[in-house]
Amino acid sequence: MDLSNIQIDEWNFEVTQIKARKVNKFGDPPSAIYTITVADGEPHVESALSSVTVVVKDQRTLAKCLKMFGHEYYINSRMINGKRVIKKTNL
Predict the structure, then answer these.
(1) Mean pLDDT across the stretch 49-65?
(2) 59: alpha, beta or left, given left = phi > 0 and alpha = psi -120 to 50?
(3) Residues 6+ apart with CB under 8 A from 62
(4) In which domain, by residue range, is 34 found?
(5) What is the dihedral angle through the alpha carbons of 39, 6, 64, 89, rounded to the nearest 10 degrees?
(6) Nearest C-alpha neighbor of 2 from the set 33, 31, 43
């Protein structure tokens, strides 16, 4: 199921940004937040803020969500020793 593009009547809805919060239930304070922006059909993890260690289970949950939106990978970048390093991660 691809939820990234939905047609209802004469309207087309395209999901271009996802805000993911690690919480027990909606409304609780998050222990981690991901901001994911889809540009030119590619999901980019733009920020990952966390007060806890992000574990493999968290990465699998992110992968499940992105697959639901029809994606097969995501891209993120970070600065390492003053240089931007771009990484593509397959789901």
Answers:
(1) 89
(2) alpha
(3) 20, 34, 45, 74
(4) 5-90
(5) -20
(6) 43
Half-sphere exposure of 30 (CA within 13 A, CB side): 13
**pLDDT tens by residue, 32-41:** 999 999 988 8
Q: Which two tokens stand for residue 55?
A: 């574990």
Partner residues linked to 86 by β-bridges: 77
- Hey, is 27 helix, strand or coil? coil
Q: Which residues 6+ apart lie within 8 Å of 5 measured at CB?
A: 12, 13, 14, 15, 70
Count of domains forming the chain: 1
- pLDDT, tens digit, for every residue of 1-24? 567 788 999 999 888 999 999 999
CATH code of the domain in which 74 resides = 3.40.630
Question: What secondary structure letter does DSSP report for 29?
Answer: P
Q: What is the pTM of this model?
A: 0.76
